[in-house]
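In the previous chapter we treated chains in isolation. Here, by contrast, the input contains two separate entities that must be folded as one system, with a combined length of 927 residues.
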Amino acid sequence: MDSVDIGDLESDLKGLVGDILDEAKRQGATAAEVSVGDDEGLTVLVRQRDIETIEFSQDRGFGITVYVGARKGTATTSDSRPDAVRATVRAALGIARHTEEDDCNGLADPERMARHLPDLDLHHPWSADADALRDLALETEAAALDYDDRIVNSEGAEVSTQRSCRVYGNTHGFVGAVTGTRHGVHCAVLASEDSGMERDHWYSVTRDPADLEDNVGVGREAAKRALARLGTRPIKTGKWPVLFSPRMAAGLIGHLMGAISGAALYRRASYLTDSLGKQVAANAVTLSEHPHLPKALGSAGFDGDGVATGSKAFVQNGCLERYVLGSYSARRLGLETTGNAGGVFNLRLETDTVCPAALMREMGTGLVVTELMGQGVDIVSGHYSRAAAGIWIEDGEPAYPVEKVTIASTLDDMFHGIVAAGDDVDRRGNIHTGSILVQSMTVAS
Amino acid sequence: MTQLVETAKRDLWEAGEIGEQDVSRLIGRLMHRQVDAGELFFQQRRLESWTLEDGIVKDGAFSVDRGVGVRAVSGEKTGFAYADDIVLPALGKAADAARTIARTGGDGSIQAYRRRDVTPRYSDIDPLASFSDRDKVALLGRTDAFARGLDPCVKQVTARLAASFETNLVVGSDGTFAGDVRPLVRFDVSVIVERDGRRERGFAGGGGRHDFSWILSDDADEETRKYAREAVRQALVNLDAVDAPAGSMPVVLAPGWAGVLLHEAVGHGLEGDFNRKGTSAYAGRMGEKVASDLCTVVDDATMEARRGSLNLDDEGTPGQRTVLIENGVLKGYMQDKLNARLMQMAPTGNGRRESYACLPMPRMTNTLLLSGGSDPEEIIASVGDGVYAVSFGGGQVDITSGRFVFSATEAYRIENGRIASPIRGMSLVGSGPEVMTRVSMVGNDLALDQGIGTCGKEGQTVPVGVGQPTVKIDEITVGGTA
């Protein structure tokens, strides 16, 4: 990748944001907000011990929202030349002429703008070139292919590095930049024996290349996971405890966050409509966000409205303390923004934890879910029914893998039925949690 | 079609003062280090959308995206770079990046350009310009009022109207010199109904590769009212739904959109890349029996103005009708150029990409299970205890095992050969290869979806169409709670 001076890039983009805001005011906007992004990246994929693709990416684009009184229009483009800027602003204003007045529209209140932007330590460029990334990827895939004779094929190993710089500004005079890097190692392989062919994968993703999981370990873990899926057996349909592995648990918490997000609530499109102050989960569940964690993937000093972010709990001992709100949805609900335009930042399940083996013992007989498929989660009614694959547990011990089963319940019953959580916390996403044990779900096969 | 190429050249090259000679020189530069094939994909896409919520049109968005994707292929290896500015310096830089893939091999030959004629499957009309913004906004307002008037339980209506207009041009060292101009529109309505503290959603919409005269040239709003009625009907049905059963049982799929199950269960597994790499459950099974005799499956890009239709794919190969499975026997894969060459097959016009910033890969267009001989009534009457699935929210497949899952948004119990109470919270889980052998009845009522399907693969989304008649599957896992 080209090495750019990040300070220069940020000040260029801030200049561009200022120019676009000026153009919007000149063309008649009463208020405006602009977001400019500039990203570049390099991804190398190897497959069957040879390089398959090298992809260079480089993007710059901007989006503008203009307000004319209580009317609003939005336009985006990948073209930031001056005549394109003028045309895009014109397009946004053209739209604002035809939309209708909505009193909740507008920028967030000026006093809520972030004043001090903390240094979040998110920018750690990787000096490796395409050849170095290829060698790492080759080594990663080899570690998986050589792990066991039953690893018969590969979807490949991929090593990537990305730099992203996003500048947001609005006509309150706020302008801020979030610059960060993101590097990853990913490997997916196929295991086969008489019973059939199974695929699984593993990956590591971090802000700092020095923090990446050892690439040989990533390859081996992918192989182990694919092998662990071989020899599936059918199970009997019934009600059983279900242990969500950390990535699946993060997804489950994500559904709850979706149900308490302003956009769902003001539309009354959530099973948790009008639930503020009510018990929405078991007593053991506390969910809070930590937007200023150094090096974390979900860190940011301000939200999508320019509002200051800060640590806070959404669910405390099972009780819904606050919704997830940006300024628009907050106004719609007659509440104050929580600094969450665009979502939560580094959400954590805070509870007493035990090791995964102890969770299995506590479960006795039931299903550990390692993969979920499909979109069978209805935030409106709270109904949950998804396809799952995982490991059947008998008397607290892993017995055999299972696939093609469904797990079903309601989100309300599942969250009230959380009985324990694991210390195997996964921090590769924006939601940090270990395994979660849910008392009972319908498991069908 | 040669006229489409001229349109594309004007839209994509004029602003950057690029000419045919410049492009030929770029291909030469790309091929310099002995690359097998080099390609430039120029694209411009304008999008517009309007959203009504709470009775007012509160959101509108417009975007324009232009750029060029540059690809160099050497054996199985691909180098790719793109630029979001169609000017020569950016193009040269992208070509230099893409060709780093080639170290050895390749003869670096460049074929003379061939421009071929293709029968257009849709018009080159710009849907964004086809009606005034005032007309579009007014239609959304009328839809809202109509939907709310249908039932007092309707508490929320969201109506959306969206259009895109794309121009692309593909120039390749294999002699490809092809352009396409693609309109695409959609309209959809989503409602929330509430009764006795219970809340359910309903959704309906339609669209295709044409302009807005489809819904705006009609004083009676018949088309848009049809979608509003359908969304409200579905939501009200779900208010009465009981918990879905759990376990294995016969499932009857309704005609039309339920074909999305087929899209997941077999469609993806028949894409060339998964089969070339041997990662599909269908790899190496050409000519074998993979489904019951009743199943004939085609992918057809040539249907008139459908959402998945293509004059040319994103590699400049003409769209075509490909038989994938005929009377249960595997007959063909869907191919792009790279996978076709490596498998020594012919490209099938299925090379698609989300945008210039993505590499093309084999993707479906309009995928259909063709009609059989059964009367739909007879099919339902043949089921003692099972479910009837009318509409699905979405699905997903694991290509390697063939495992798939679907979530129903409208479904019913079948009891003693009759459709009984509606059910909610239902997923269907199965394996594509297994399910296709369990198709025991196929109706004579092939229907296409309404034209709002979108397919995702490796992070790239493209518009697609699906269709099927009423189909009975003898046994499939139903994941409910009752």
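Chain B has eleven helices and 23 strands. Chain B touches chain A through 79 residues (CB under 8 Å). Compare these points with the single-chain example from earlier in the chapter.
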